[in-house]
Design goal:
By secondary structure, this protein is of the alpha/beta class. The protein has 2 domains: about 120 residues, D-Maltodextrin-Binding Protein, domain 2 (3-Layer(aba) Sandwich), CATH 3.40.190.10; about 100 residues, 3-Layer(aba) Sandwich (D-Maltodextrin-Binding Protein, domain 2), CATH 3.40.190. It has 10 helices and 10 strands. The strands form 2 sheets. It has a 5-stranded mixed β-sheet with strand order 2-1-3-10-4.
Length: about 260
Amino acid sequence: MKKKVFVLFLTALFAIALIGCGNQENASKQTNEKEEIELKVSAAASLTDAMSDLQKGFQKEHSDVKFTNNFGSSGTLAQQIEQGAPADIFLSADQKWMDTLSEKKMIVEETRKDFSGNKIVLIASKDSDIKIDSFEKLTDKIGQIAMGDPESVPAGSYAKEALIKIEKWKELEKHFVYGSDVAQTLKYVESGNTDVGFVYSSDALLSDKVKVLAEADPTWHKPIVYPGAVLKDTKNLDEAKAFVEFLNTDEAQKILSNYGFSK
């Protein structure tokens, strides 16, 4: 009888051990199969090249996060968000369009962070023989000038502000060809469709088809500041907030610097 009881006892212990192992295996499987989180980022076109490295840097500590990016002019992106376009994060090339969403109570205010800056430069195609070395030397004898649409493209708005400051806007206004974003503006100059153009220094740095002729004095326009914020409609608040905060880390700032951005 005692032997039978002992055998039953051992059998029960074995069964409990198997259940325990099964639970541990299931828990481990659930951990390894952690649900993937998608963050939709609406970002200024000037951030296109840097964004891949920034997101890879973030994923070192957040391997469960994947990104879907929407690049364009800050104004166009803000308008898309206003109209209901899905996005978790907005990264603007100026304060104006972030302020627009803020006024409409579409961002999580405490997540708003300034994370970078830039400079406005005058460029020409690499093979151009144009000798202009300052904004002040631009005259109405110049051909076509590429510029982001000042109404929606921050780079164009900054350039217009600088030209008004040095009293060149009215003289040159009829020569402007407006791009839908800074990427298109750069292409106009790279292709030779315009003689010169105004872009960010970060864009000029990454192109082997253009050269910088001159740089705008930063006192000619509002400070170029890139703010980022989480949008109120996000379903991934913690992860979105973590990414915006990551942009101000040493690692992210080094990446941005490598792509020609300055803070």
